Amino acid sequence: MAHHLAERKSSAIDFDLVWKLQNVPDDLQGCLAGIAPEIAAGIKSPPSGVSNISEYAKSQACWSRISALTLKPRGDLASFSISLEEEKEQTRDAKAIKAIDDEIGFETLLVKSIDRLPGVQKVAEGNRLLSPLSLKALQKAQKGNFQLTKPERNALTHLFSRLDEIGLGPASWDE
Q: pTM to 2 decimals?
C-alpha cells in the first residue's frame, strides 16, 4: 500500500495519524483488505521453476512482480494519506525532536551522576578509555559545568558507550 501510494498517488500513509489514533483507520483497513487477496495471489503463484514460496516471497523478483501490479484500493485514500512533502516534513520534525530528547536525556544523566563522575574517570583511566576530549568533558561536568561543546558531548557519549560495553557504564548504574 505504501509503495502504491508513493508511486501512483505521490502520497504516503500518515503514520502519525495511525500513532495518534493508536489504531489503523477504517479506510486504511478497507484498502488493505481489498488489495491483500491480489497481493497474496501474486506471491503464491511464483514463476515456473520456483518451488520454495517462502524464499521467493523474500526475493527481489517477487517484490518487482508485486510492485508492478495495478492495484485498485477501495475507500477514501485521502483520509489516511499525506503528501510526500508532508511526510518529509514529519520525518524532519521527528528527527529534530529526537535530537532534543537525546540531548535532554544526556544532560539529565550528567546531572544525576555528578557524584559518580570522579569514579567514572578513574575506571576510564584504568581501562585506558579516556581521550583528551572525554577527560576535558568529564572534568567540566564534575565542576557542575554541563555546557559541553558538541565534540565534548560526543566524546563523553562515546566514553559512556565504551564503558557500557564492559559493563561499567551508565546502563549498569543504579538509579
A: 0.63
